[in-house]
User: What shape does this take?
Amino acid sequence: MGFDLNCIVGVVDEELVCPICGDVLEDPVQSSGCEHAFCRACIEKWMLEKQICPVDRSDLMRGHLVPVSRLMRNMLSRLRITCNFADSGCLLHLRLEDYRFHVASCEYNPKVAVECSNGCGMKVPKDELATHNCILELRELVNRQQSEIVDLKKAQGSLEVRIVTQRRELELLQYYVTALRSSNPMLRNIGEQLDRYSLMQWGSGLPLATVRTWGSLISTPDTPMHVTVRECLCSCGCPMNLVNLMVDRCHEDHWPDGLMNLDVRRENFHRLPLYVTHLLPSLSTGKQCVVVLGGDNTHMPENLRPVLGLVMIFVEGVEEVQQDPQPDNELA
Assistant: This one.
């Protein structure tokens, strides 16, 4: 596993020869007890079967292996080695630490990958270039990729089935937790705090939005629009246990008192631009959608402040807020 002794330029001190492979030490370590040195790969393979030093038979455990002395490292660094392909024309004398990289990329290495000159773009070993068949190789490549696509589609189908199953289990768990919370006031308070935290964590990953046209608000969406809102919330990572709640709150019947009908919204129209809103992906119908979270809007009057959150659908007039990049802080 070391460097071929026959390729070393000049005389090699016997202390630099691995007693296991008989070549010059590569990535050397030594026993902290007897101080005999070995190639790391050689001694680790040896110790899979024996826990003794291969030179003097003293006890040797993995924990006894330490880096070799600086003197030995300096002696190794002064050695030079010829390339494996010297017979093919490579005349370089290399440092040991450069040897492996050079051999892998040496221009005289017949296995170095080169690009086909016929235009197929494939890289093939240099010694196989003469027999390289572009059409055959590309056909095999296409077949392998098609096979990989089939495997990926199968894996995707399996994952989708698992996701559907887990989603159903989560929904059942949600109903169970809701039942528990309705019967226990303490659990209800803790649950509401957790719901608030989950929504804020989710909302922090959504872009901020500005509503330019509050008059385009759709306050009484129909059932098909409820379905598209649900799909939108699921696609952007809304906490699964809160999807149904947020879908219900896209209708004015479930909004705060200051939003529950057109007349009171007109009375509070000057306050609506003060809402902090987050942009949701556009619905499949093309309508624009924002989410208003209670934790973001504690500054709003109580009659306009959602307890947890609500969803608003607009025909038009919603824009993403372009946030300026934060300047780097300079040390004073």
Summary: Helices lie at 40-46, 70-77, 96-105, 134-183, 185-203, 223-235, 243-248, 262-267. The first strand starts at residue 8 and ends at 9. The chain is about 35% helix and 15% strand.
